[in-house]
Amino acid sequence: MPPEAELIQAKLDAFLRIAKNNEQKQFNFQQYELNLLNCTGLFDLLSLILEQHRDQFQLSEVTLLLYDHQYEFQRLLDLHPKPASWRNRLFFTDKERALTHTFNILPKPRLATYSANLHQLLFPDHAELKSVAILPLKRRNKLIGSLNLGSRKSDRFQPNIGTLFLEHLTAVISACIENARLQERIKQLGLLDPLTGLNNRRFFDQRIAEEVTLARRNNSPLSCLFIDLDHFKQVNDTHGHHAGDLALKQASHIFSDSMRTSDVLARYGGEEFVIILADTDSDTAYDIAERIRITIANTDFDINASEPLTLTLSIGLATMNENTRITTTSQLLESADQAVYAAKTLGRNRVHRSH
Q1: Which CATH number fits the domain that encloses residue 233?
Q2: Is there a contact between 245 and 71 (Cβ–Cβ < 8 Å)?
Q3: Is pLDDT of 27 > 80?
Q4: Tell me: the pLDDT tens digits for 250-265?
Q5: pLDDT at position 144
Q6: Same-domain pairing of 101 and 217
Q7: Quick check: 320 pLDDT over 70?
Q8: Is residue 156 within 8 Å of 122, Cβ to Cβ?
Q9: What confidence tens digit (pLDDT) does each residue in 91-128 have?
Q10: What's the structural domain count of the chain?
């Protein structure tokens, strides 16, 4: 083959390789985009962004910054154990101004050489990076965070190369994050308490009616514990609502660990919780309540303060059986509520039975 023909063939082969490579990249992106759109929850979506994105696009690092001024994202994610691999990769700020002034997020994607001064906050412990893409996430023309891509290759991200593709990607991710947040909010309106992950009052109201009907049919005892954390307003006033949320979640775990499979635990509202103990007489219910009270009193609550927090609680106990005047759902709840009020009146940090 003449030298000229060999040169032309070599160029043609190179173009074909580039075309095939671009075709594969396009296919990978389409699959990734479909996976993003098919995510059913916030945790799954963030797992996809932080894990699959890095692997699928052969990046050295992927981090995500989200604006979370009401701790909404963080509360939702606290319902799941976060993977250790997310450490120093998922960030939140509750100050909108910090997006532009602290993290230097611009309205348009920025592809640049890695600079410790500009990018260290977004890529902690990754001084080996050579090039980065800082991609703003926006909804309704307002910044909600940034997706940050890092590579050890200096030519991976160059100014004005692939910008349209990256803008499309961030538009998809921004929409998916917003949709996941709205889906989680819809769940909150359902049967789970968004902060603690426990059953909510709506669920409890359904279940207690069922349990009362079953107890009456089987002529079996049914006990109800009404739990109220003592002086909880002082926790919020002294340490802030975020600290109060942490304490409520830790208390919820203790309650959950004390439950049997047949018991029903719910957050009734604020710092109030309620437990239905099926086929449980008053003495057994009292023992369960007392164990919960002692465990709470002996727990050091970690609320990210200089010293751990100690709490106590008051518990009202009511039991429906053949020897009590309680025969309906409302009477059982009212008796337990009156009992917890009496426990507080008598000095708190105690279990009180209705009579």
Answers
A1: 3.30.70.270
A2: yes
A3: no
A4: 999 999 988 877 889 9
A5: 95
A6: no
A7: yes
A8: no
A9: 999 999 999 999 999 999 999 999 999 999 999 988 89
A10: 2
Q: Which residues have C-beta within 8 Å of that of residue 348, sequence separation ≥ 6?
A: 230, 231, 312, 314
Q: Which whole-number Å values give the CA distances from 129 to 119, 158, 162, in the listed order?
A: 10, 14, 19
Residue 14 in domain: no
Identity of the residue numbered 39:
C
pLDDT in tens, 170-229: 988 998 998 888 877 777 667 888 889 898 998 899 889 988 988 988 899 999 999 999
Whose structure tokens read 């009193």? 297
User: How large is the greatest C-alpha to C-alpha distance in the chain, in angstroms?
Assistant: 107
CATH code of the domain containing 168: 3.30.450.40
What whole-number distance in Å separates Cα of residue 340 and Cα of residue 288?
15
Q: Which of 126, 158, 188 is the last residue of a domain?
A: 188
Query: CB under 8 Å to 207, separation ≥6 — which residues?
Result: 199, 264, 266, 276
> For the residues of 264-323, what is the DSSP string, one character each?
EEEEEETTEEEEEEET--HHHHHHHHHHHHHHHHT--B--SSSS-B---EEEEEEEESTT
Per annotation, catalytic residue among 61, 184, 211, 271: 271
pLDDT band at 17 (very low <50, low <70, confident <90, very high): low
Residue 9, pLDDT score: 64
**Tens digits of per-residue pLDDT, 35-48?**
888 887 888 899 99
Tokens of 201: 């009052």
**Residue 147 lies in domain:** 39-188
Q: Are residues 183 and 205 in the same domain?
A: no
Q: Are residues 176 and 213 in the same domain?
A: no
The three-point CA angle 330-203-179 to 5° equals 150
SS3 157: coil
Continuous H helices in 130-162: none
Task: Examine the residue annotation and report whether 334 is marked as an active-site residue of this protein.
Answer: no
Of 144, 165, 188, which one is at a domain's C-terminal end?
A: 188
